């Protein structure tokens, strides 16, 4: 991880107006610095403003007060050059795996032959070379998510924002995808903000975990995860960080309980 600041969230508040015309504070005075090449997880209960914060960083929405900077420039709108986002898979059902991965490169104006070359590289990276001509409906959920990752990476964004990308996957596939995204992140040196509800997912992936609380959404604490990679989910260090987070959410019983055996 570099020491350069990649993303800066300065005193950001966001108020929505609901259908009755009432003001709903979604985020209050959020301050956050993300370093270049960092893997940052946003963790918190439903409604604490994780997606709102991600959308503000992506430039899909504007803060009510405060500002977001990427590379020192205020974010005023989405910049695909910097950012890829994937919620669910968002694949085009009528396109093959290759066609889906090529999509972002078409928008970028990359030539046909170069497009093919780049798309194939990323399809290989996510281990789907045998399925290059398949359509999304022929693939499992985990494979579709791999296509979505390949498509996002193919345009070579410096920052990747991921909103619960593995939420719909079964537990085993989810663990595998966590390993894959970690490998890709290390290989490609991206800055990632990753939203999750899942404490263990955050401990496995993050350099730092931003714990958020709701009503209104605020940062409760930022917990560094100083465990070497790849991480062993059964190690003492892993349990320790996990327990720290459980305590943050007051989910850990104070009496001694061997609940992880
Ligand atoms: N467009 C909107 N209009 C009105 N209120 C909104 C809007 N978007 C979000 N909110 C409110 O802002 C708060 C934060 O929502 P947000 O989706 O950011 O939370 P979240 O932490 O991502 O939740 P989840 O984990 O369930 O996706 C919620 O109370 C939500 O109802």
Automatic annotation (TrEMBL):
Superkingdom: Bacteria
Keyword Nucleotide-binding attributed: yes
InterPro entries: AAA+_ATPase, ABC_transporter-like_ATP-bd, ABC_transporter-like_CS, ABC_transporter_ATP-bind, P-loop_NTPase
Pfam families assigned to the protein according to its UniProt record, in alphabetical order: ABC_tran
Enzyme class label: translocase
Key words of the record: ATP-binding, Nucleotide-binding, Transport
EC number annotated for this UniProt entry: 7.6.2.9
Cell division found in the keyword field: no
GO terms for MF: ABC-type quaternary ammonium compound transporting activity; ATP binding; ATP hydrolysis activity
Domain ABC transporter: 7-239
Protein name, per record: ABC-type quaternary amine transporter
Organism: Calderihabitans maritimus
């Amino acid at each position: 991880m570099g020491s350069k600041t990649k993303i800066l969230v300065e005193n950001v508040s966001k108020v929505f107006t609901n259908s009755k015309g009432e003001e709903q504070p979604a985020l209050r005075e959020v301050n956050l610095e993300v370093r270049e090449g960092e893997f940052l997880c946003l963790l918190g209960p439903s409604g604490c403003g994780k997606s709102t914060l991600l959308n503000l960083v992506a430039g899909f929405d504007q803060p009510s007060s405060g500002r977001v900077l990427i590379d020192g420039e205020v974010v005023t709108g989405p910049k695909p050059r910097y950012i890829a986002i994937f919620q669910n898979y968002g694949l085009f059902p009528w396109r093959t795996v290759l066609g889906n991965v090529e999509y972002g490169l078409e928008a970028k104006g990359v030539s046909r032959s170069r497009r093919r070359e780049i798309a194939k590289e990323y399809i290989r990276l996510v281990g789907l070379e045998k399925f290059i001509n398949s359509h999304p409906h022929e693939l499992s959920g985990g494979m579709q998510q791999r296509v979505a990752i390949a498509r996002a990476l193919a345009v070579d964004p410096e920052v990747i924002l991921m909103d619960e990308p593995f939420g719909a996957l079964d537990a085993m596939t989810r663990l595998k995808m966590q390993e894959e995204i970690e490998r890709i992140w290390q290989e490609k040196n991206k800055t990632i903000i990753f939203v999750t509800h899942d404490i263990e997912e955050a401990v496995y992936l993050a350099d730092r975990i931003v714990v958020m609380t709701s009503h209104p959404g605020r940062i409760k604490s930022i917990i560094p995860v100083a465990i070497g990679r790849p991480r062993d989910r059964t190690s003492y260090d892993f349990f320790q960080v996990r327990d720290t987070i459980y305590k943050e959410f007051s989910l850990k019983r104070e009496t001694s309980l061997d609940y992880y055996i």
